[in-house]
Amino acid sequence: MLGPQRPRPGRRHGGGFRVGDGVEDDTRAALEPFAGDNRVRFFDFPKGERHGELNRHEALREASGRIVCYLSDDDLLLPDHAAEMSLLLEVADFAHSISARLDVDGTLEYFPWNLSRPEFVEVGLGRKASIGLTGVAHTLAAYRRLPFGWRTTPDGGPTDHHMWRQWLEQPGFRGAMGERLTYLTFPEPWWGKLPPEERRASLEGWFRRSREPGFAEELDSMLEEAIRRAAEDYHLWARSEQLTVQAIRSTRSWRLRERFVSAAPLRALLARRRGAS
Question: How many domains, the chain?
Answer without folding.
Answer: 2
